[in-house]
Amino acid sequence: TLTVESGGIGGLPASGSAFGATIGADAIYHMSMQFDFYDGGGLDICFLGALEVDRFGNVNSHRGPDAFAGIGGFANIASAAKTVVFCLTFNTKGLETVEKDGMVCINSEGRIPKFRKEIRSISFSAQQATKNGQRVLYVTERCVFRLTDIGLELIEAAPGIDIKRDILDRLPFDVSVSLLNNQNNS
What we know:
Elements: E1 8-9, E2 12-13, E3 22-23, E4 27-28, H1 31-39, E5 45-49, E6 52-53, E7 59-60, H2 74-80, E8 83-87, E9 91-92, E10 96-100, E11 103-108, E12 112-113, H3 126-132, E13 135-139, E14 143-148, E15 151-157, H4 163-167, E16 176-177
Parallel strand pairs: 5-8, 8-13, 15-16
Antiparallel strand pairs: 1-4, 2-3, 6-7, 9-12, 10-11, 13-14, 14-15
């Protein structure tokens, strides 16, 4: 069941300027009750966005190059969920991809990388998540990484993606590679 930090349970979370609202909610709780649920470990899994990810798996979700947004409930949700899934593109500002015959085709790479040696600010601590025993995944349009004790591990590449050219050569740091299902895209 989807939840929204403003109190919505079930239904469809709204986006854009209506972010925080829920369409067709099964229930609406007071925000403080919702955070009690989050802080108490009520979430099995959460899906969150990320602006930047570093080589250790730390995430910046609130501080961009020209703006600083409040972190909101991100810290509560990310620190208490048993599984955390960060959803982001591999890079931004110009990235164009299409799906053709079950394959991901990159027409244009973005100019700004999301995976960086150092990030502007830490909203999510990979070290703390590891200590807490959380499972953490980083899902992009081309690949999936998981958090390990030593940093990021590439575990999946989308069909059509060249692992070396489209992933490894575009990272500013090394990652371990342990592809599931014996993938061989490189």
